[in-house]
Write a structure and sequence with these properties.
The complex is a heterodimer. Chain A is an all-alpha fold. Helix content of chain A is 73%, strand content 0%. Chain A contains six helices and no strands. Chain A starts with 9 loop residues before the first helix and ends with a helix. By secondary structure, chain B is an all-alpha fold. In chain B, helix 2 packs antiparallel against helix 4. In chain B, a hairpin with a 4-residue loop joins strand 1 and strand 2. Helices cover 77% and strands 1% of the residues of chain B. The chains are: A mainly alpha, B mainly alpha. Chains A and B meet through helix 4, helix 5 and helix 6 of A and helix 1, helix 5, helix 6, helix 7 and helix 9 of B.
Chain lengths: 174, 507
């Protein structure tokens, strides 16, 4: 499940366990807290955990991007959204709704199914060797963006432009 | 340590349609910025020019050999070229039916066409996408403008609801899809569809996780093509969105969803016949039956078209559902043929549906309503439009002079062929197609009946006058539907060499 079980990877395995635990607890808090702002703040912990996992995998560039984009931009956007739409900042009893039992019926079997399937597939799998050196992994990433995935990369820029224009039209007061 | 960066070789001819479209998009935005409020109608002309201009390289590419880039990740073969042409034509027709609707209403015109062109660009990329990342990005490029266009009638709560529902369901589907894709990547270490097929064929992937990955990917696309039980967003979104946008979503967006499904299912997953079968056969069966049963009860023509569109999606899933039977029998030509059947149906479906929505828009200009009862006596006050709508609805029902019969017949034949290969599911689907065609014929003919039967108490109404662009759209689609119905070889011939599986996997 984890990295290689030779002694020099023991710290990695320990840290993975800690990070995973923090992420699960924070993710639960995101959906159970009664305060929208707190939910956004718990989300930061979840996303930071993802970044931590990327560092454990030796890909610091993706980790930094994760922090910049998700924590730096998206969560801040959430907070701005809460502020600008005058959503209640304090605790709100109405954040929940009466669909909980129904959601449980869907979510629990799905969790069990996915958990079993993933365990079944990768329970014995070990990462056999350390990934490529960190510097190379960043350049490999950039090479593949501008080589293999050039067209999706360019298309994403059109997407962002269109999303920007549409969002301005929908959000402006007229 | 680092390998030097090698600039990828780009085949600009293969990319020319997309480049023309992006050029038109840039010109449109620049014009929109620097023009006065009174001249916004020009933006529609720029969009039209861009869409028509992009057809020119499509024609030159059609004459040449198949091309591919990035080691096959981006393919411009006959299959892709046909679909690109279809998307451009559909986009052009949507602009035709939008011009007056958007120009006369309280809408942001230039931005509307900007989003429309970006969405069409995403669809064109989807036609060529042969790896998971391209498929995903193309899906987002075509969907996100769609979410926003659905909410384009800004002061209207129903339109806002349409946009939000579409957006939330779409994003949820995307999340499921991405999870499935990440499992596929985790299993194979590949993003290219062909390489994924090879990795799956080696049989090392554990079956449970492989099945879960495929099911998640299929569920993600099932939302996009509004298959039951993932269709709940469609009627509200279709009814609430501005009607030209509805036409665009019902035709272009759904077609693009099917293209994504064809690319992924036929190329990457075609070897996993049992998973596909257990997923797609029930999906197709439920989708067509539920769609038709609910459509019977609708009194609003747009909701009726929405549910009939759900039922049509069920028919269209059938060839993909039985494709695995042919693969199992090792008859790859027949498997490719079932993909081609779907391709033919998509072309006919686009013409019928766009035409139908064009007539609905033309009638709503007079009546201001989408209720079927408001079309009473249309035979007297709009005979041309009435005939056109009768052709389109007759096409949906599969009544011979209109083109729909050929698409339906081809699907029916494919399922029967699969049945003949000792596959009960093929006969089962063929049987359901037959029953559903009867149910569907009932509500389509009922609309035609409402249009011809006059209301005796009513005063005779003045003849309906429609703008030229709208009439042109109705005329083009009606001619296309009748032409395909009378000479089906028109579509069956051009799709002859569109061999998706053979071209992508070399099998």
């Amino acid at each position: 499940m984890l990295a290689v079980d030779t002694p020099q990877y023991l710290p990695e395995n320990i840290f993975f366990g800690i990070i995973a635990f923090i992420m699960v607890v924070s993710a639960l808090r995101v959906v159970t807290t009664r305060n929208v702002v707190h939910a956004a703040l718990w989300l930061i912990l979840v996303l930071a955990g993802v970044a931590g996992n990327f560092i454990l995998l030796g890909n610091e560039f993706v980790a930094v991007t994760q922090v910049l984009v998700y924590i730096g931009a998206i969560v801040v956007l959430f907070l701005f959204g809460v502020m600008l739409t005058r959503a209640p900042i304090g605790a709100d009893a109405h954040l929940d709704n009466d669909q909980r039992p129904l959601a449980l019926v869907v979510a629990l079997p799905l969790l069990a199914l996915m958990g079993y399937v993933l365990w079944d597939a990768w329970k014995d799998t070990k990462i056999t060797e350390a990934g490529p050196p960190i510097v190379a992994s960043t350049s490999v990433l950039s090479d593949s963006i501008f080589k293999t995935y050039l067209i999706p990369f360019e298309a994403a820029s059109v997407l962002l432009l269109a999303a920007l224009i549409g969002a301005i039209v929908l959000a402006r007061r007229d | 340590m680092d390998a030097p960066f090698v600039t990828p070789t780009l085949d600009y001819h293969a990319l020319a349609p997309e480049i023309v479209l992006v050029g038109a998009l840039a010109a449109l935005i620049l014009y929109d910025v620097f023009s006065s409020e009174l001249n916004k109608r020009v933006t529609a002309a720029i969009a039209q020019l861009g869409l028509l201009g992009a057809i020119v390289p499509i024609l030159t590419l059609w004459a040449g050999d198949p091309r591919s880039m990035f080691d096959g990740a981006y393919a411009v073969d006959k299959y892709a070229i046909i679909l690109k042409g279809l998307f451009l034509a559909a986009g052009y027709l949507v602009v035709l039916i939008s011009v007056h609707y958007i120009g006369e209403g309280d809408y942001w015109e230039g931005e509307y066409y900007t989003l429309l062109l970006s969405s069409v660009l995403g669809m064109m990329l989807m036609a060529s996408a042969r790896d998971l990342i391209s498929v995903f990005v193309a899906l987002e490029v075509l969907s996100i403008p769609g979410y926003m266009l659905a909410a384009w009638r800004k002061r209207d709560l129903a339109s806002g609801e349409a946009g939000v529902k579409y957006y939330l369901m779409g994003v949820f589907a995307t999340a499921v899809l991405l999870y499935g894709m990440s499992l596929v990547y985790g299993l194979t270490g590949q993003t290219q569809l062909r390489a994924i097929a090879d990795a799956f064929a080696s049989g090392q992937a554990p079956k449970p996780v492989l099945s879960l990955a495929i099911v998640f990917v299929l569920v993600g696309f099932a939302f996009k093509v509004s298959a039951v039980p993932f269709h709940t967003w469609a009627p509200d979104t279709y009814e609430g969105a501005p009607t030209p946008v509805t036409a665009f979503l019902a035709v272009a967006s759904k077609t693009a969803g099917f293209v994504a499904l064809m690319n992924v299912v036929a190329v990457a997953f075609h070897g996993q016949t049992d998973v596909l079968r257990w997923m797609l056969v029930p999906l197709a069966a439920i989708t067509m039956t539920v769609g038709n049963l609910i459509a019977v009860r609708q009194t609003n023509i747009i909701r009726m078209l929405a549910y009939s569109g759900v039922a049509q999606a069920g028919y269209m899933l059938c060839p993909l559902a039985v494709m695995g039977t042919f693969v199992k029998a090792n008859d790859m030509a027949a498997a490719d043929n079932s993909v081609r059947t779907l391709l033919v149906y998509l072309i006919i479906y686009a013409a019928m549906n766009l035409g139908g929505f064009a007539v609905v828009i033309a009638v709503a200009r007079r009546t201001g309503s989408g209720e079927i009862s408001s079309m009473r006596g249309m035979f007297q006050w709009a005979p041309g439009m009435m005939m056109a709508l009768a052709i389109f609805l007759g096409g949906f029902a599969g009544i011979p002079p209109a083109g729909g019969w050929f698409g339906k017949f081809a699907i029916f034949k494919t399922t029967m062929d699969a049945g003949a290969l000792n596959d009960g599911a093929g006969y089962f689907l063929a049987f359901l197609i037959g029953i559903n065609s009867v149910i569907a014929a009932f509500y389509y003919v009922r609309v035609i009946w409402t249009m011809v039967s006059g209301n005796e108490g009513d005063l005779p109404q003045a003849p309906l006058k429609s703008p030229a662009a709208l009439r042109a759209a109705v005329f083009i689609t009606a001619v296309a539907v009748v032409a395909i119905g009378v000479v089906p070889t028109l579509v069956s011939h051009i799709t002859d060499n569109a061999t998706l599986i053979a071209a992508a996997t070399g099998r």
